[in-house]
Amino acid sequence: MNAPTAEVAVPFPSELPTGYEWLENEPVFDPERHLQLEAPAEILTLADLGYTPQEIAGKATTIAATSPFRVLSEEGAETMLAVGRELRQFCRPAGERIERVVRGGCYRSRWLRDLCISPEVTQHFADIYGTSIAPHPMVGHLGHINYEPSRIETAVDKWHHDTIPLDYVMMVTDPAATPGGRFEYFLGTKAEAAAMRTRGETPPPDRVVAPDFPGPGSVIALHGDMVVHRGGPLTDLAERITMVNAYVATDTDLDAQSRNRDLIGVDDPEALYTEWAKSVAWRSASRLEQLIARAGFSADVAAVAEELEWAVEDVATAVAEMRAGQGKIDHYE
Ligand SMILES: [Fe+2]
After folding, report:
1. Which strand (E) or helix (H) includes residue 263?
2. What is the mean pLDDT of residues 57-68?
3. Ligand 1 midpoint to CA 12 (Å)
4. Which of 55, 106, 191, 314 is the most core-located residue (most Cβ within 10 A)?
5. Cα 164 to ligand 1 centre (Å)
6. Quick one: 281 exposed, middle or buried, by C-beta within 10 A (0-12, 13-18, 19+)?
7. pLDDT tens-digit series, residues 269-294
8. What mean pLDDT is reported for the chain?
9. Domain ranges in the chain?
């Protein structure tokens, strides 16, 4: 197997969508000063969560989650907190799942953009996941920021799995100073969580992991599409900021592992539909190129048609979902 590499799926747009402006007076992202890339001590696999080989086949990586590790230096963490606080003015609800988020922050903060598309960071996570990756081609999924809810009885985020394949969850505020609001994940499969939801239950405490983060600027790497997780409730109303940055596997033979339809009504339409189109165009273009490069001839019309269908699968799904419009956002509560 080739060594995992950091790649680019769709280049970051050179223009901003309507309504977005760059923040002023930001420091310039400097990998030397702002990063402190450390390796996770522990890695949990999809098999550890109970997924079968059939369920794991076609997924971006066999890894489910890691123990927390540092990504930002102390100076980087201070800058990230300042950016998070500055972007708070743009927060709004993401459907019914979470009350206060900022999406498209990478269209506002150059520092956040440069962190989220940093080749150094991408390579670090490619090595951890053991698969070649690129920053997510949809900018809305880069540097997604969650804020504490306005009411204490509300969990920061309901039990869910992500609309993207791979991500990291970063503590932006100091987890040691936050009353409750722990990041938690379920030691089980999506199917088990769905069965619990049917019975009116949520993951029991003895099957929930709440990792100890070493400080602001630390993360856990997550197979977001496969691991059921949430931000737990606060015990006291306090500032709590986390940042989630998403990646995709660049092997387009693998599953898309995305639910873009969930973003209708959440993301700004202009950004969403343009990014969505480019994202699926990238995947289908890559599959079509494979088909063009194939040697030999075939008279098996059914097989040829099926291959073509496979190549444009993501484009076809996107067209249908865009035309169908808003659905119901999926979660486990
Ligand atoms: Fe999530």
Report:
1. none
2. 98
3. 23
4. 106
5. 9
6. middle
7. 999 999 999 999 999 999 999 999 99
8. 95
9. 31-257
